[in-house]
Amino acid sequence: MFAIIELGAKQFKVAPEQIFTAEKTGSIVGNTFDAKVLLLSDNNKVNIGSPALTGAKVTLKVLEDLKADKIHGFKYKKRKNYKRAWGHRQQMQKLQVVSING
Question: What is the pTM of this model?
């Protein structure tokens, strides 16, 4: 059994008891929440929503908050004395699939 869920602007393929990382959802560590289900597969039966399935539910639990690796960027223009460096660390959360119902 697996499901394809949408969190923010990204989609994830999840199975029961799976642990994965995703961008910060706004939930507090230890809380559970439901994700939007786009596809649900149970052995040989596949249900596809348009765009989401009604009645299907994937419950996720927030295990911890963390940060992704730092991304560095650098811009410059030759002979113009223009240089700009920047960096970014995305806020992430470690999530666990508690249950898949459909």
Answer: 0.84
